[in-house]
Amino acid sequence: MNLGIENLPATCDVLVIGAGPAGAAAALTLARAGLDVVLVDAHAFPRDKVCGDGLIPDAHHALRKLGVLEEVMGQAQASGFVGCIGPRGGRIDVPGMLAVLPRKQLDMIVCRAAVAAGARMFAPVRFTAPIEANGHVVGATLHHGDETREVRARWVLLATGAVPQALLAAGMSTRHTPSGVALRGYVKNDAMVGRITALEIVWHRAIKPGYGWIFPCAGGLFNIGVGIADSHTEHKGGKLTKQEVNLRQVMVDFQTVYEPARALMQGGTLQGPMKGAPLRCTLEGARYTRPGLMVIGEAAGSTYSFTGEGIGKAFETGIHAAEAVIAGGAANVGANADDDAGVDARVRADYEARLLALKPRFDLYQRANIVNRHPWLTDLLIWRANQSPRLVRRMSGVLNETSNPGNLVSVKGFTRLFLDRG
User: Fold this and answer.
1) What is the per-residue pLDDT across 393-409, written as a single tens digit (0 to 9) for each?
2) 102 or 399: whose pLDDT is higher?
3) Minimal CA–CA distance to 295: which of 180, 179, 164?
4) In the chain, at which end, N or C, are there fewer CB atoms within 10 A of the end residue's CB?
């Protein structure tokens, strides 16, 4: 791992740019299928990454498919519930298969597995621009310091996250601004071990249109943060402007209205500075493909709008892209230009169809984002859930992706809150 730019090969089957969940999952899946994979990242590993670090059921399923779930859970802090806390202090614990592991550890595990499977990883190496021939992406220009290298590849997978520069350079961005923003820090506080045992998400009018969270990691470490899912508002003409929201003030307000957050911060030690990051949500903001290139992970908008969760879906998009390449026979091209074009079209159509199959759920989470703008709705949901085991099961189904999240926040859904006597 972390081979220098001077060691980059001139060619490979697939060049994966970005070694986060999407890129590493793609590289691992492709390498296991026998393809020659080069994986690059702008930062040497292990490296920190701003994230809530929560692993919900979709992430568990992806990690199991990748063959690294056992290793991840050996380092993670497991939890059987996510605690939803409303403005009036009401709480409902929603059961699910959950865990927390800092991205510094999680990403290292998956990248190491990709390298063990045969992928070659180079870092720090930064993407500059695609290499094109007759409208087809055939590789990328990469650099570090004063060194520049070109790598030719049958496919380039762009997994560069929420920052738009790489998308812009590749001609794939349809939205320059992020969908949301978040701020998080790590706090060591042994006194809170046993007091905060579930993933906690808090809604309150003082922190709208977002939410606060506290996620317990192993060893007395806690991930605490705040997020705003709709940080940029669209006006006439499609122009997006940032809302006047100061995330650091929102963090202060979170501690003011939620006593456990205040106790955690006042009695603990902050491990490094609080860090902010943009979010790209709802599978929007980028073109998914062009000849020779696919966009995966958060670069493609793989984060859920309502909850800000994106690790599991980033894994899924990376796996989907890799499986499309493998199923399309993309390792066996090069003899005939017409055949190559057919393979390219088939692979891209397969990948885009897989993303479009996920899109309705992303849209429903966007609708559910009304709860962040109107946090009093969580009081209603929590009050009714504490009276209805059936509603708790429905909420658990949303978490486990067996129920429709839109059903909880639609007019029909609210009507059912009062009709459901189960």
Assistant:
1) 888 988 888 776 666 65
2) 102
3) 164
4) C
Q: How confident is the model at residue 24 (pLDDT cuts 50, 70, 90)?
A: very high
Residues 371-391 have a mean pLDDT of 90
158-189 residue pLDDT tens: 999 999 999 999 999 999 889 899 999 999 99
Buried b (16+ CB within 10 A) or exposed e, 209-239: bbbbbbbbbbebbbbbbbbbbbbbeeeeeee
284 Rama class: left (phi>0) / alpha (psi -120 to 50) / beta: beta
The pair of structure tokens assigned to 240 is 């997006």
Distance of alpha carbon 189 from alpha carbon 187, whole angstroms = 6
**Contact (Cβ atoms closer than 8 angstroms) between residue 91 and residue 84:** yes
Helix (H, G, I), strand (E, B) or coil at 264: helix
Question: Three-state DSSP class for 67?
Answer: coil
Residue with tokens 């605690």: 83
The radius of gyration of the chain from alpha carbons, rounded to an integer in Å, stands at: 22
Residues 321, 18: contact at Cβ < 8 Å? no
Question: At which residue do the structure tokens 């290793």 appear?
Answer: 71
Instruction: Quote the tokens at residue 199.
Output: 């993933």
Fill in the amino acid letter for 221.
L
CB 21 within 8 A of CB 318: yes
Nearest to 54 by CA among 290, 291, 227: 227
Contact 115, 126 (CB under 8 A): no
pTM of the model: 0.93
d(CA 233, CA 241): 5
Q: SS3 of 229, please? A: coil
Distances (CA, A) of 77 to 6, 54, 130, 224, 339: 39, 10, 40, 15, 49
